[in-house]
Structure formats: C-alpha cells, structure tokens
C-alpha cells in the first residue's frame, strides 16, 4: 500500500512541474524524430516522459553514472511507442539499467534454433527481462536516436519486447483488441516471418528478425518507427497491422 501511494505521489509531483526547456532542447539536438512529431504529439509525449523518468528506478552498470540526458533520451523514445495507448503499458517496468556500450553476457543461451544452446561471451546492445529490468547500451541509444535512416533503434526494440510481454508470453503478438485484429496480425506477421526465414524478406528487416517471432516484432517495430515510408512501400500489410496496433502513422511524419 505504502509503495503504491509513494509511486502515485512521485508521478503527481513530476506532472506538477513544467517540462524543462533544457530537456526540449536536448531532444531537438539529439533525437532526429523529435522535430518530425506534430506540436500536439510533442505536447502529449512530454508528460509521459516526465512520469516515466520519475516512476522508474535508473541504474548504471558498475560505476557508470546515469545522467539526466540519458534518462530523457531513453524515456522519450520509449514513450513514443505508447503515445496513443490508453493506459500506461509500462506500469509494470520497475528498473532501467544503462550500460555505457555493448553489454557482454556469459553463460548458456538459446540460439533461436529449437533445442540448440550456445555458450561463450555474447555481446548485446540491450535486453528486456520478463517481469524484470530493461537493459540499454547508451552508445546504441544515442546512435539510434541520431540515425533513424539506419533502421536500428535499441530503445524501440527493447520496449517493443516489453509490450509483447504484457500478455505473459514473448511470441511476437502483443495484446490486441479483438479476435479479428488478432487473426489479421497473426496472418500478416506469420507470412512475413516465414518469408524472412526463407531468405525472401528483402533488405529492410535485418536477419535478426528471423531469430524467432518475438525478435520479428521487435525488429519490425524498429523499422516501423525509423523507416516507415520504406516499410509502407515494401510491406504495406505489415505496416498496416503495426499502424493499427500503435495507432500511429509514422510514414505521414516524413515529409
Ligand atoms: Zn530482441
């Protein structure tokens, strides 16, 4: 009970403050998509960013100190995904852990091929744990914010995983509003996923999207928000189901 009320108070306190001009300035300088948003979108994104920053526990890996700049740039990109969603889909996320650069994991892991495990050092740029923290490499977050044309964005990627996990499974299908929407989602994504696995997916989605359906959704989300015009042209049906889920038309933002 106490925890809940402390959390609510923290969120209220964050919203009582005006959005700092320094944060706006930082977003203008470091996030290429920020100027492409409409005034209305930016105005609605700002309070989400304030709440996100106040609501989460921020940790640096080892002696790496998390700065306000890191919080703002990560929070803004994470919140863009949920800008048009009704209640806070990130409510269950407690902690964001920021690493300076590539994170090297050790120990056994699944490879994406059923039953095949791999060992040895494994470099990653981020990770989203089910009911756990989100890990982000700051280097990668900066590069993704600056260069949307490259089609990679680790923040979009990891937070898409978090949306996927909302229904308890990481299967590339986030919670959808009704059976018809779900059926269309499954039809479109399954077809695209199998095309990718067969090497027929085209260059827009990286090979990593063919790892498993969960990675497919995370990579498709990256491309949807960073290279929307190309995605709409190349894979209109995939663009369509993502636009319906996120309730956004990022292709319309690109003049
Ligand atoms: Zn992933």
Explain what this protein looks like in three dimensions:
This protein is an alpha/beta fold. It folds into 2 domains: 1-151, Glucose-regulated metallo-peptidase M90, N-terminal domain (Cyclin A, domain 1); 171-255, Collagenase (Catalytic Domain). Helix content is 51%, strand content 10%. Strands 1-2-8-7 form a 4-stranded mixed β-sheet. A hairpin with a 5-residue loop joins strand 7 and strand 8 (134-137). The chain is globular, with a radius of gyration of 18 Å. The mean pLDDT is 93. Zinc ion binds at residues 157, 161, 215, 218.
Topology:
Layout: H1 2-16, H2 21-30, H3 39-55, E1 57-60, H4 68-81, E2 95-99, E3 103-105, E4 109-110, E5 117-118, E6 122-124, E7 126-128, E8 134-137, H5 138-146, H6 154-164, H7 179-197, H8 213-226, H9 228-234, H10 236-246, H11 250-253
Helix pairs in contact: 1-3, 2-4, 3-4, 4-5, 4-6, 6-8, 7-10, 8-9, 9-10
Bound molecules: zinc ion.
Helical percent range?
Answer: 40-55%
CATH superfamily of the largest domain: Glucose-regulated metallo-peptidase M90, N-terminal domain
Uncertain runs are: none
Radius of gyration: 18 Å
Distance between the termini: 48 Å
């Amino acid at each position: 009970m106490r925890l809940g009320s402390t959390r609510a108070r923290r969120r209220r306190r964050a919203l009582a403050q005006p959005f700092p001009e320094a944060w706006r300035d930082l977003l203008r300088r470091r996030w290429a998509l920020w100027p492409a948003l409409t005034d209305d979108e930016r105005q609605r994104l700002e309070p989400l960013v304030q709440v996100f920053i106040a609501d989460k526990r921020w940790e640096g890996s080892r002696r790496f100190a998390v700065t306000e700049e890191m919080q703002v740039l990560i929070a803004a990109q994470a919140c863009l995904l949920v800008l048009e969603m009704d209640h806070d889909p990130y409510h269950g996320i407690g902690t964001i852990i920021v690493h300076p650069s590539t994170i090297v994991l050790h120990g056994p892991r699944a490879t994406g091929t059923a039953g095949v495990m791999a060992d040895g050092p494994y470099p990653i740029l981020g990770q989203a744990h089910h009911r756990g923290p989100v890990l982000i490499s700051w280097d990668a977050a900066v590069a993704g914010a600056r260069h949307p044309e490259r089609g990679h964005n680790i923040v979009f990627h990891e937070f898409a995983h978090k949306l996927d996990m909302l229904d308890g499974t990481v299967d590339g299908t986030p919670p959808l509003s009704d059976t018809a929407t779900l059926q269309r989602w499954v039809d479109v994504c399954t077809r695209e996923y199998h095309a990718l696995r067969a090497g027929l997916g085209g260059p827009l989605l990286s090979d990593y999207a063919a790892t498993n359906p969960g990675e497919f959704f995370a990579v498709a989300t990256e491309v949807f928000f960073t290279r929307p015009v190309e995605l709409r042209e190349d894979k209109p049906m995939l663009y369509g189901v993502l636009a319906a889920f996120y309730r956004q038309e990022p292709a319309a933002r690109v003049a």
